[in-house]
Design brief:
By secondary structure, this protein is α/β, with parallel strands linked by helices. The protein has one domain: 3-Layer(aba) Sandwich (Rossmann fold), CATH 3.40.50.1820. Helix content is 42%, strand content 19%. Strands 1-2-4-3-5-6-10-11 form an eight-stranded mixed beta sheet, with helices on both faces. It has a three-stranded antiparallel beta sheet with strand order 7-9-8. Helix 1 crosses helix 14 and helix 5 crosses helix 11. The longest helix has 24 residues. The chain starts with a strand and ends with a helix. The relative contact order is 0.15. The mean pLDDT is 92.
Length: 342
């Protein structure tokens, strides 16, 4: 793949501080297929934009064997404002932000990217994982017509207001447990090599694909100094930001609004949902809510991938790539007759 890095403007922080978003554009080696699709890919909480690279390599290969309309023109992956390289760019601006960078703000940054001119005239397909699925759906709010020709939600972390209210204790207990685990985990290492050895020997990282672990060490950690002034490496996404993300975003309503967006969009654009078959982080009620047809969430397909739960991207990247490839074919097949009639 050919990879280019970009620094994009972002809406300001909740207190008005200027922010930026780090992004990468991926293109298949060789001639660009201008009538192919452009992917917009959004990572999950605690992750980074490069998490998609193994999936992208597989996708480019799979789609390159098909007619040009089904191929991938290019793919963009963006870092949430308080994650990955964006967290480094915005470190000073966000250090005193109690709400950090809420999902609403990420959604608006994605929308700003869509109108930047970088993807004007492209056939866009949005792909979001976990909280990235929330940002993806929120990015559609200010468009009269949905900017995406298809949407893929991978283990979407959301539920509507009714579901939150009816299952308040269960949901807050589940996400509170994650919050507590994040606060008490190790966050400082002598070197990236030591960090890599640490992750490879401990759950959940030792269940991840080895390349995803290597990418995490390379792109989610940064050089720093400890309290004694010695060189070390730490996470780019500050612990306080990651730990508070569930509670802060529940209070601000991003995951709830995202679920409601499915009801609005599902009859306008194909929305495909991928779940891990194992129910672990996300309670069953959240999954049911996302695909609730009684609330007009008429998604185009639901795929269950066996032997994996919420960590579907880091644990099974190549299975996910194959599944997304099949979904892209469905999106393109549905779109082709409409275009031929123009």
């Amino acid at each position: 793949m050919n990879i280019e890095s970009f620094i994009l403007p972002s809406p300001p922080s909740p207190s008005g501080q200027p922010l930026r978003v780090a992004a990468k554009r991926y293109r298949y080696t060789g001639k660009i297929t201008r009538d192919g699709i452009t992917l917009v890919m959004l990572h999950g909480l605690g992750m980074h934009k490069e998490q998609w690279e193994p999936i992208l390599e597989k996708l480019f290969t799979l789609q390159s064997e098909k007619s040009t309309f089904y191929r991938i023109r290019e793919a963009w992956s963006l870092d949430w404002q308080n994650h990955g390289e964006s967290a480094v760019l915005n470190e000073e601006a966000l250090k005193d932000e109690p709400k950090s960078a809420p999902l609403d703000l990420w959604g608006r940054a994605i929308a700003q990217f869509l109108t930047s001119g970088l993807v004007t005239g492209h056939r866009l397909v949005g792909i979001g994982y976990s909280f990235g699925a929330v940002g993806l759906l929120l990015s559609t709010r200010d468009f009269q017509k949905c900017p995406y020709e298809g949407i893929v939600l991978v283990e979407p972390c959301m539920a509507d207001e009714d579901t939150w209210a009816a299952n308040h204790d269960e949901l807050h207990a589940a996400f509170g447990m994650v919050n507590n685990a994040v606060k008490h985990r190790r966050n400082v290492w002598v070197s990236k090599r030591e960090a890599h050895q640490y992750f490879m020997g401990r759950f959940p990282w030792n269940a991840w694909d080895s390349r995803i672990v290597a990418l995490f060490v390379e792109h989610a950690l940064k050089d720093s100094t400890d309290k004694n002034g010695k060189a070390c490496v730490i996470r780019k996404c500050p612990v306080i930001h990651e730990a508070s993300a569930f509670q802060a975003n529940l209070e601000l309503g991003g995951p709830q609004e995202a679920a409601e967006r499915i009801s609005i969009l599902a009859d306008r654009v194909p929305i495909h949902v991928i779940f891990g078959e194992t129910v672990d982080l996300l309670p069953e009620v959240c999954r049911d809510c996302v695909v609730d047809r009684t609330k007009r969430r008429n998604v185009a397909s639901i795929t269950m991938i066996p032997d994996v739960g919420h960590s579907i991207i880091p644990e099974q990247p190549y299975v996910v790539a194959t599944t997304i490839s099949q979904i892209l074919d469905r999106i393109c097949s549905a779109e082709a007759p409409a275009r031929s009639a123009l």
